[in-house]
Amino acid sequence: MTQIHSSSYEHHLVQLQQHCRVCGGRLNKAKGKPQPVYSCSENSQDLQTIVGIHCSSEENSIFPTKLCNQCHIKIDRAKKAKEDGMPFQPVVPMEWSPHEDHCKVRKKNYNSSTQLAAANNNNNNNNNNNNNNNS
């Protein structure tokens, strides 16, 4: 593993906490008014049940500790659908890795968001095809 310089590591920690744990997007990025930000620890049960994230055992130097408003809403909808016995859109978290000298948090966020959008589109197309086949 590459030796980590202190200032680079501190910068990494600051940058990391400006991102959502689930999607990797920047917090408070919405145009116009600031959006709510949610704590992973306060939502740990839903994160574990719906997303499969065990935030209580995660290292804060690797994983962000906040959720964006959009992911919080998705998790809440999935939770309600699950409680009602209805199918729900899976919430797929981005993969995070330990910090290195050449931190790629922003690049990973872009790639993960692009991959997640593609996966969601693929799931939607599969669901539509299944619905059409069942008609």
Inertia-based shape: globular
What is the CA–CA distance across the termini? 55 Å
Mean pLDDT: 75
Portion in strands = under 5%
Bin the helical content. 40-55%
The helix-strand sequence is HEHEHH
Sheet having the most strands: 2 strands, antiparallel
Which value, in Å, is the CA radius of gyration?
Answer: 17 Å
Continuous helix count: 4
Q: Low-confidence parts lasting 5 or more residues at pLDDT below 50?
A: 106-135
What is the tally of beta strands? 2
What class do helices, strands and sheet pairing give? mainly alpha
Spatial ordering of strands, largest sheet: 1-2
Report on the architecture of this protein.
It is a single chain. The protein is mainly alpha-helical. 47% of the residues lie in helices and 4% in strands. It has a two-stranded antiparallel ribbon with strand order 1-2. Helix 2 (44-51) crosses helix 3 (69-83). The radius of gyration is 17 Å and the shape is globular. The model is unreliable at 106-135 (pLDDT under 50).
Please sum up the structure shown.
With 135 residues, the protein is mostly helical. Helix content is 47%, strand content 4%.
Please give a handful of descriptors for the protein shown:
135 residues
Reconstruct the topology from this structure.
Blueprint: H1 6-16, E1 37-39, H2 44-51, E2 66-68, H3 69-83, H4 105-134
Antiparallel strand pairs: 1-2
